[in-house]
Every structure is written in C-alpha cells, then in structure tokens.
Amino acid sequence: MTRLRPTGDWDGTRLAHEGFVFSADDELVERVVPFVLEGFRRDEPVLVVAGERVRGLLAGNLGSDLGRLTVFAAAETWWRGGHGTLQAYDRDLRALRATAPSWRLAAEPTWLAREDGRVWSRYEAVANRCYDAMPYYSLCLHDARRLPAEVLAAVDRSHPLTWGGTAPAPGPAYEDPAGFLRSVQPAWTERPADAVVGTVTAPVQGRRALSAAVPGDRRARLGDVVLAAHELLVNALRVAAFAELATWTEGDTFVVEVSDGGPGLPDETLGYVPPDPATGPRGMWLAWSLADDAAVRSGPAGTAVRLHFRRHPPGALR
C-alpha cells in the first residue's frame, strides 16, 4: 500500500492551495483527519473552519485530539461579502504570520452554495497570487452534494492542487488568476448609444458629473458611486493627462466606466487584493468593495474599468 502523504512534498515555506471535492462523508474523513494529525506531528497550528455537518464528522473522528486544534469554528457566520470576508481572512493570516513559522487550514466555504456567495471563487483565485509567500497549507473543502456544477468547475480552475488519492497533485484545470477573473467578470460589450461620455482632467470634474448622472431611482447609492469612481479617476490621472468617464444604465444596473491611455495595469487582480495595512487602502480595492461587480480591460494602450451598481430594494444587504 502507498503511504498517505497529506501534504505531499510541501515544505512549509510558501502557500499550498488545494481544492478537495468530496461526495461522501468517508471521503472527507479520510482526507482531513490525516491532514490534521500530520499538522500535530509537525507542531503546526491547525485551523478548521467548516459547516455544521463537517464539524460533526471531524469531532467524532478526532476524539480527544479535537482540543488540540488552534481554531475549530463554524463557517456559517463568516460570510461578509467577498471583500469583507477576505479582509477578515487577511487580518487573521497576518496575525498567524507574526506568531508561527507555518500553519495549516482546512476550510469549507459554505457560502458558495448561496447565489451571492459564488463570487468567492474569484477571491480563491486571487489568493494564489497575493498569499503566495504565506507559509501555510490551505485545504479547501467542497461538498459535491451541495454545490452546483458551475461552482465545482470554478473550484477546479481556481486551485492549483487537487487530491490525487495518496498525495496532492497539480490540478489539470487550474488557470492563471488574471485569466480566471477575465472569464467570470461581467461580459465586456460595446457601450450603448445613449451612454453619457466626457473627458475628465481632475477628479472633482468626475465627482460633479456623477452626482448629476446617477438616476433618481438609485440615489441611495450615490455615495458609493462617487467615491468608487473617484478612486479610479485618481489612479487614471496618475498615468495619463486625462481620463474618459462614461455612464449608462443596463436593466437595473448603473454602469460607470473610467478609461485612460496609460501604460496598462501591472496586475489585473488588484481590485481583489487586500491593501497592505502599512501603506493604506488601494483605490481599486476600495472601488471594487463599493461596487456590486467590476470588469477590467487593460493593455499597453491603456486601461478601462467598469463598475456595476445594482438597484437594491430597501433594506437589502449588499
């Protein structure tokens, strides 16, 4: 029999990111329990954040070892939207980095079963880039009995590792984070004929134009729209003498596009990357966090960013 290697040849110096899809309880137990016990043998902090059923299975199989876990928490209360969840996750990772040379995490993002939680696949993809130097093994648990096929396909595309039966193996469907994001962001179509387009040479011009352009039935979003677009205009005017600001409505969505003729973005994933606390918030992160969705087109001839703001019913959570 081949000896089980829960983390393969991982040496604890950089991120290892595995998407583990299971369709039976015993598959989950056989994968996660050895993963946890290996962490104990290596004196690594082991964190488990999962749904109620998964926690119950692990508790029953770990027995007295359950108390050795550094964290054993319910995933159901962790979802705060994509940006809010990742920001809290980022804070916890930085705290661990300050106290442990390496650690491991078994996490079940239960919110992927929700319509509003499926955006998490984008953050899973970006984690491969922004946490590459973090010394931990992230074992992401996905129950095929609960998740739709399109979510499971995104798991395969956003995780560089999968389970090979006795050891982790390269995921054959894994995609570069920027390419993955381009494929799942809103489709980039031609501006409609009735789009309002103007040239902006200072952010204050853009703020004034947007204050007038936001439709009356979504004035409750005015602050979000103006602040998000302001951040993009500031970025655009750092690399170009002027920016173009366009606005239009698609169904129940108000779209803002900011474009420039600069050299292009160094990294199209920046809107999903948490800002470094030492350097303050980044404009794209703030803009993405205020909008309901975003899309990017960038290259040597310039960058265009579209922010989507939906009309939310009164009292609805974003």
UniProtKB/TrEMBL annotation:
The alphabetized UniProt keywords are: Kinase, Serine/threonine-protein kinase, Transferase
Matching entries from PANTHER family are given as:
ANTI-SIGMA-F FACTOR RSBW, ANTI-SIGMA-F FACTOR RSBW-RELATED
Show the Pfam families listed in the entry: HATPase_c_2, MEDS
Superkingdom is: Bacteria
Output one GO MF annotation: protein serine/threonine kinase activity
Q: What is the lineage of its organism?
A: Bacteria, Bacillati, Actinomycetota, Actinomycetes, Geodermatophilales
Q: Where would I find the MEDS domain in this sequence?
A: 17-160
Cite the SUPFAM superfamilies for this sequence. ATPase domain of HSP90 chaperone/DNA topoisomerase II/histidine kinase
Q: Where is the Histidine kinase/HSP90-like ATPase domain?
A: 219-308
Q: Under which name does UniProt file this protein?
A: Anti-sigma regulatory factor (Ser/Thr protein kinase)
Q: Which InterPro entries match?
A: Anti-sigma-factor_SerPK, HATPase_C_sf, HATPase_dom, MEDS_domain, RsbA-like_anti_sig
Q: Record the organism.
A: Geodermatophilus normandii
